[in-house]
Structure formats: C-alpha cells, structure tokens
Amino acid sequence: MEKIFLSPSGINLFLECPRCFWFATNKKIYRPRGPMPSITIGVDTEIKKLFDYYRNIGKIPDFLEGKISGKLISTLPKTMYANFNSRVILYGHLDEAVQLNDGSYVPFDHKTKNKKVESVQNIHPTYKIQIAVYIKLLEEKFKKIQNYGYLAYYYPVYNSEKKWLDFENDLKKLEVKNEIDQIPLIVHNIIECIEHPVPQPSEKCEYCNWLESIKTQKPGDIELKKELNIPETEIKIEEYKETLF
Prior knowledge:
This protein is an alpha/beta fold and 245 residues long. It has a single domain (4-195), classed as Alpha-Beta Complex (Lambda Exonuclease, Chain A), CATH 3.90.320. It has seven helices and eight strands; from the N terminus they run βαααβββββαββααα. The chain has helices at 8-16, 18-27, 38-56, 125-142, 177-195, 206-214, 224-228, and strands spanning 4-6, 70-72, 80-83, 88-92, 96-100, 105-112, 148-159, 164-175. Strand 6 (105-112), helix 4 (125-142) and strand 7 form a beta-alpha-beta unit. Helix 1 (8-16) crosses helix 2 (18-27), helix 1 (8-16) runs antiparallel to helix 4 (125-142) and helix 4 (125-142) packs across helix 5 (177-195). The longest helix is centred in the N-terminal third of the chain and has 19 residues, at 38-56. The chain is globular and about 60 Å long.
C-alpha cells in the first residue's frame, strides 16, 4: 500500500478545502501560486543566520534571554519525519527547535508580520496545526516533548528619532494540546478523502468558488465594467491585508 506523506501545509489545505486537497494529492493539480514577498525571504534568511551564530557558540539569542529557559537544538535537520501509522508519514521543515532545561523539546517558528500580534487569540489557526505537527516530529526523534511551541514575530516599527524603520520582535507561547489530540481524526479523514471520489468543495474556498462562478461562462458573456458597475478609472485589484508569511 502506497505511503501517504503529510506536511502541515497539506493538512491545512485539507482543512480549508477537501476538494483542492484531493486534486493536489490524486491528480497533482495544484492551486495557482502567487509571488512570495521577497522581503519575507530576506528577513527569514538573515534571522536563520543569526540563530546559527548563537547555536555555534552554545547560547540562546540575546532577545530570548529570560523568556525561554533552554538552548537551541544542537543540529537542526533540514527535514524531519515521523511515522504516524503504517500508512502515513508526517514531515516538515522546522525553522528552529529549543531544548528546554528539563530535557524536553519544543518547536520555534519565525513569522514576519505587519504589526505586533496583541494576543495568542489573534494567531492564525493554521499556525496551531503547524506547531502541532512539528511537535509530533520532535517526539519521533527526541521522545520528550511539550504540548506547546513558540512563535517569534518580527515586524517593522517607525523610529521617529532616526526617521527610519526598526524591526521589533515579539514572542508568543502557543498551546496546541487540542490540535495534537485532533491529528488522529484529521489523518483518518484525509485517508478517507484520498480513497474516495472527488469531494464537494468547501463553501469558503475562494479558488473553488471562483471556478464555479466562471466555468459556465463563455468568452464575451460578461463585460466586467458593466457587471460590476464600476467606472473604468476606478477598477483596481484589492490587496490582501493579511499574510501567512
């Protein structure tokens, strides 16, 4: 029987829309991908260089002193795997992991944001699944884990004295016991989805809703400006105000 490899992004895709997940898994037909902001890639690259520096000297980064009691994992594999059951293998690419003073391990993930996240209640639910899967990966390798992980947010702040921007950081401890407990049922539902005909789309899936809205149309059936009743000079593409990067 063929093995099923599941990553946090794959699980989150299933939770968002089973039909999009089915097509991606069974037919290798993926959602269109937009460009990834290069500033996010740049920030992530430099932060990882910083963490590698502290790893090599056996310290935790200065901005985490007093916030986390532990040290960075000595060797961070590029990809980690966990045999969830005889059929399913979980895998993922951890940004970082911390060995706490009691010998247990927790995941640590970097996130860029446009502003400070005021509360863990405002953290995107996909991050909880991501951290829960990362904990299962750490459990496979190190056995002793906790039911939480850390998210480090990095966001720009205007410095009025320098008349320039600074990057601030904010650490959030994310409890994910409920998400860990839900993984067996989610995995079961994913296997059911894969082994059955294409499911119905999620009502909230923007991709499927877009497809349904245009697939019966023929070229020339819709004049955009008339349909939307928008003057030509005012037609614009709305920018997304939130990002998961």
